[in-house]
Design brief:
Its EC number is 2.4.1.17. It is a single-pass membrane protein. By secondary structure, the chain is an alpha/beta fold. The protein is built from 20 helices and 13 strands. The chain folds into 3 domains: 305 residues, Glycogen Phosphorylase B (Rossmann fold); 161 residues, Rossmann fold; 34 residues. 51% of the residues lie in helices and 11% in strands. The strands form 2 sheets. A 7-stranded parallel beta sheet has the order 3-2-1-4-5-6-7, with helices on both faces. A 6-stranded parallel beta sheet has the order 10-9-8-11-12-13, sandwiched between helices. Strand 11, helix 14 and strand 12 form a beta-alpha-beta unit. Helix 12 crosses helix 16. The N terminus is likely disordered.
Length: 528
Amino acid sequence: MSPLSVLLVGIFFSLADGGHVLAFPGEHSHWLNMRTIIEELVRRNHKVTVLVPDASPSVNFNSSRDAAKFNFLVFKVPFSKSDMTSWMHDFIHFSMYEAHNSSLLRRFLVPMTILSNFAQIGMQQCEAMLKNKELMETLRNSAFDVVLHDPMAPCGDLVADILGLPLVVSMRFSFGSTLERDCGQALLPASYVPASPLPYSDHMAFVERLINMLMYMGTSVLSRIQWKMKIDSFYTEVKGSTSSFCSSIGRAEVWLIRTFWDMETARPIQPNFFYVGGLHCRPANQLPEDLEAFMQSSGDAGVVVVTFGSMVTHLTPDRADVIATALGRIPQKVIWRYRGETPRTLSANTKLYDWIPQNDLLGHPLTRAFVTHGGTNGLYEALFHGVPVVGIPLFGDQPDNLARLSRRGAAVVLHFNLMTVDELVEALHAVIHEPSFRSNMQRLSSLQQQQPVAPLATAAFWVEFVMRHGGARHLRQASHDLYWFQFYSLDILAALLLTITAGSALCWAGLHCVLWRWRWRSPTKKRD
C-alpha cells in the first residue's frame, strides 16, 4: 500500500469514527478557552454537545455562529443571569476598591463569603441539572464518549461519574492548588512551588515559604470543610452510595492546565497533567478598515493597546481620569477598550471602543505596548506576539500572572489604586523605549511557539486519546488508591518508630539485666 493510500485510509477512518464530546464550560474567559478546544475538536470531525444553564451570562447559546458548530443543551435553573453575575461583581469591586484599605481578616472573610454565595448558586445549578429526569435521560441516550469539564461549571464531574464516562478536566488553577494537589494528586512541594495565586517566585525567602506552607495547609483544610459540609452529601445522595467531590473530580483521566513554562515555575509533573497555556493564541488576522487606518495614522510612534478584560467594563471617574491623562501624555496613539462614561481628561490620541480584536491588534507590527489587568488569556496573547506589558492587576490570579512577567523582565507592574499619572507615563516610556522589555518578551514568545506540538493540538490529542481508549488509566498514579496516612507513609513511620522504641527498650532491659547481675555478683567475689 502506498503512503498516499495509508494517508487516505487514516483520513477516512478519522471521519468515520468521530466521537461525541459532552462539554461543561465555565463563564467569561473560561468559556473562551473551552470554545477554542471544542472548535478544534469539531474541526477534527467530532460532535460536541455543550450543557449550559439558561442563566449563563457569557455562553450565548442563541448565537448562530456557535450553533452551527455545537449542539447546545440548555436547562432551566432557579436563578437569573443577574444572580450569576452579582457575586462576581461584588468580588471584583471589593478586590479593586476596598481590599487595599482592609484589614487582613476582612481581606480573607469577604472573599470567602462571596465565594460561599457562589457555591450556593452552584448547588442550585447541580440540583436543577441532576434532578431533571428528562435531561438526564437525554444525556444517557446520547452516546457520549467523554466529558470535557471546567471545574468552574459545577457537577460536570458528577455527571460523568453517573453516566460512566471518562473525564477530562480543563482549568487554569484552583486557589491554593487544592484541586490539583488534594484531588489530582499533583506533587507541589511548598518549599519551591508557590501556591496560586501568591505572587512569589520559586526561590522564596523563609517568610515567603512560611506563608506558602500556611496557604497550602489553610486552603486544603477550608476546602475540605466546605466540600464536606455543602457538597459531599449531595454527591452521595445523587449516586446512592458514599461519594465526595474530591474523589469524583479525582477520577479525571487527563488534566489540561492552561499555563506553560514560559510563565509558570518549574515543578514535578504528573503523567496525566498536560500544560497547554496559550492554546487560544494564533497569528494576527487583518484588522477592519477603520482600525487599520487608525493604526497607520500613528506613524513610527506606533500604538498602545489598553484593556482591562471583559468583566471590568468601567472604572471610577478618578481612576479613569488618571489613566486617560497618562495616555494623553505619550506620543503614541491609543486604542482603549472601555464602555464606561468617557473620562473627562480623554485626549485626542486615544480612541475608545466597546470591543476590540485584541489578538489581531497585539499581532500588528505597529503595536508598541499592552496595558492590561493581567488576565491569563490577554497575557498569553501579548507573550505570543512579543509585546511588552504595563500591568495593573485588579483581582484573582492577576497579581501572580504579572509578577511572573515582571520577574522575567517583560513587564512593569503598577498598583491600581495608588499609581499616579507620572508613574503610568514612566512605565509606558520604559516598556516602549528600553529594548530589554521587548527582547525579554520576544524570548518568552520563542519559548511559547517553539514547542514540539502546539498547545491546542496537545489538548485535542489527549481528548481524542481518552475517547479512543475509554480513558488513560496507564497515566493514573496509585496514590489515588491510598489512604492519606499511606500516602505520607505515616504508617511506615509509625512502624519504624515502634520498632526502634521496642528495640531500644529491649536493649535497655538487656543492659539493665547485665548490669544488675554484675553488681549482684561483685560483692560475692570480694567476700570470697
